[in-house]
Design a protein that fits this description.
The complex is a heterodimer of chains A (666) and B (302). With 666 residues, chain A is mainly alpha-helical. Chain A is 68% helix and 4% strand.
Amino acid sequence: MDVSAVGMTDPAGLIFTAAALAGLSGLPGLLLRHTVGLGQKIATLALTLSGLLGLSGALTLIIHERTETFTINWTLPFGPCEMAIDPLSALFLLPIFLISACGAVFAVGYWPATHNRATEPKLTFFFGLLSASMALLVTTRNGVLFLMVWEVMALSAYFTLIAEHENREVRKAGIVYLVATHTGTLALFVMFALLRGTTHSFQFPASNSLPAAAFPAAVIFVTALFGFGVKAGLMPFHIWLPAAHANAPSHISAVMSGVMLKMGIYGIIRIISFYHTPPLWWGILLLAAGSVSALLGIIFAITQRDIKRLLACSSIENIGIITIGVGVAVIGQATHNPTLLVLGMAGALLHMLNHSLFKPLLFLGAGTLIHATGTRQIDRMGGLARPMPVTSLFFLTGIVAICGLPPLNGFVSEFLLYLGFFSEARTAAVPYLAMGAPLLALIGGLAVICFVKLYGVAFLGLPRTAEAEKGHEPGWQMLAPMGVLALLCVSAGLLPQVMVNLLRPALFTWAPELAGKYDVIAAVPPLRWLTIAGGGVLLLAGALSVVLRKRLRSAPVAGGGTWGCGYLRPASSMQYTASSFGDTAVNLFGGVIRPRCANPVLPGYFPRPEVFASNVSETLLEQMILPLFRVTGEVFSFLRRLQLGKVHIYMLYIFVTLVLLLIWAY
Amino acid sequence: MTDILIHLLLTLLMPPLLLGVIGKTKAAFAGRTGAPFLQPYYDILRLLRKGSVFSDVTTWIFKAGPVITLAATCIAALLIPLGNHPSPVSFTGDMILFAYLFALARFFTMAAALDTGSSFEGMGAAREATFSCLAEPTLFFALIALSRMSNSLSLSTMLNHYSVTDWLRSGASMLLLVGGLFIVLLAENCRIPFDDPNTHLELTMIHEVMVLDHSGPAFGYILYGAALKLFVLQAFFIHIALPLKTGNSLLDWGIFIVSMLILATIIGVVESVMARLRLVRIPQLLVAASILSAFAMLLILR
């Protein structure tokens, strides 16, 4: 391979250096196994440096609206291998480098080498590899290289995910992930093969260069939606997601949810960009998939009692919202409505960035809670705001942001989507799309239920168990990344103009036909008003709290217990729990969630002790997909005879296959 | 300029009066003299001077709750046009911010309630979260219908667009909208039949139970915030239900004040003649309200 003249100071050079640094970051740790902790320190340093280099490179490219293209001369028979960083790639590079660096620093406190001698070197190595593969993924422009990097990403994610593989539940989550991701990859093989059939090259076609009406376009789109949808966690392909995110170490969950899911979104956006005026039904399909994911994702999140499973389900919701945005943009493109296109795509890309800030923040916060209390069950926490004030403040920032409430960043992206729906309601002849606004409002309301529950039950009130009483503030390595992300959430919420300017070049890349018209539309969303209103809320709240403090000082203030409505022996176990908080909502959506309760019968006046259990199952996985796999496994069990467990036999198989292929080719 | 000044003065001074009017109406129905109209003002001033009791369980969130709730409601009050006058702050998409500021306020009220660790307040918070989530789509269905009818994306033009002729032209959809929004008005402000602001049976309440532990100045903030929310949502409702306008600025202010007082009286009447609904019926009524305004939207969109 020979990469033609990439300088170190050149932004693209910075990005590739950063990727290489990330990819190799874990290698010293694998070699220096006798000096415990040195490898992790080197890796953290390398990933932080890689983050800084990569971010500065990507930001430079975005600000100058430049596209850098390189050709790698490889000897593989898949045509020229092009690497290119256009603003769209650069935009996706931002979260990759930022969250990897944050995760690496967090890991020093969360997964210290001294306590995890066996797992740490491997975890660090694959973490770096995951980060590097994602960075390469968004820059490659060749289908075959894309699939190779995709596979490296999928496998390194698998190996980081099963860090605690002695636990059966972790292994099971790993297997489900592995099967799901490879099913998706299979669809991508089909897609890239069909794409090659259209363009006669594995090279990615230029933006807007393919006609969408031709035959394979529809199949390519559907297979892409399936293949990338599995990675992104769109419903109904989300089955791997909750268990995988719950069982991975927290900084891995942060990277998986904050960044890796977005690779699926990147793929969908990139594939659509090849086509000139995609048909309307593409947009409708995306919109439908997004709406179902968003609504069901948040409903499932309400029922969860495991903090990381809850956050994972909410990722499904957020991916759904992003997909709604992409769908709106495609509908805009199909109906030649630039306002809809711009608002939809800007909303989607902004929500992608926002979600990659607040979700890792929450996952790192969840990691801090698990680190302090040793449990993932929020019903066993409680009262943690008292011993962990800083964590609780950062976590609250993430919670307000993820609920989409002003003045934080989650609101801005939803604001753009709402504007899209409302502009459609105002002008379109038959505004079906307007129905999106009440739907988004319902999703927002459900998100508030879910996250008030999470924050209230974990951080507020009294400690529910002895574990919760052990709550303590973690070291700076864990607080600093959360602080950075919380700060970014606040500033992105208060300065939405800056964020929209960042994604403007990416939007042009996606829809080059708009390049001249955007300024007209940029005038529509008056984002500076959001700055003013958000600042107004904060200033007014500040003023009111000064007044309150003054009033409190001038009159006597007494302490005491919480008013128990006359009951004199309140106990911490009497507090509202996560299950009871969500119960009203869960009952409303009982038809979708199907909560299962084992209600014991208590006979007689002095019944024996009985056990009550309630759980929410993953209906799709447990009722449909696992039985299907079981049947498939039985039907194809005869193939097991080929499986001998001897490596040389497998090599023989490969050789025989190659010979057969050679014979077939001639 | 004068209009903005009047807007600010009315927003600052009028809200507690509405509570007074509702109280007086209910007293009249019960055959009592009732507290004076200005009683809510005395209550708030008294609370601001009083000492406080803070539960040992609570953290700073407990104090932040009333502060942020009031701040968000105040900013929302700047976005709503009063009577036939534009609001001081208006921009494209301000209705979305308007709706979400109330969500922000609600979020912090619920967080403050959960901060006490009381199961009663947890109960209230859970109910508030669920019911408001069901009320949210109603508001957005209505906003879409309004945006379509007025061909605008801002509350000021959207709401000031209406006149009596709209009632004559598309009366059916207006009637449906008014029905849906009236239900939301009552539910959002925790009035009967959804919630009883006067009851002392903590088990049955929603909003009041969430603020059980607040006292002194912080409770004063809450009381004023609740009155302000009633004021803002009433002003929103009046635009659609009673779109009377003359064109004369002062006369329009007079009409606005009178119609606000009439609406407060109507709420008082509703509270006097109705009983509180059973808790399981509340979601049904809220969903019905959503469907009413969805019908209105369909009629207008078609």
